[in-house]
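Have a close read of the entry that follows and walk me through the local backbone shapes. See right below:
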Amino acid sequence: MPTPFSFCPQCGDTLGERLIEQKLQRACRSPSCDYVWWNNPTPVVAGLIQVGEHVVLARNKAWPEERYSMITGFLDTEEHPEEALIRETKEELGLALIEHRFLGHYSFKASNQILIAYWARAEGTVIPGEEIASTRLYTLQQFASYDFGPFYIAAAIAKQWIASWPVHPRPPK
């Protein structure tokens, strides 16, 4: 179980493995110290942003040209997920939220993250932030068949939202 550090942040002794609650955990080797590195998942907010009758998908600068997804961002210290959603929507898309609904939470084990997903309606003109290479607008019908490729969690969030269309807006027929 890798850690970002080798020494105890409480007493300075080395970290090693100890059996704690029937599981091997990284912990301080000193018998007088109770530090355990739990490696808890990092909370991340994910926003499925709708502007009018379109869904906005964005391409992070680090992604391949053809890959677009919903916006995501880490929560700041003491920040509520809904506050993070509002902040990330403004930072990444230049949009102001006017309503939002919780969709669910998703475990992204590969990055040790927990994604807290929302659908949100926003207003304004899309202005990509510094992390965003480009954006695309999809009609609700186009979005319903969008292929997220390797972004399987985004696909699951989208599928859940589409299944909830009696609650959320349906695409025009």
Notes: DSSP finds three helices and nine strands in the chain. The first strand starts at residue 15 and ends at 20.
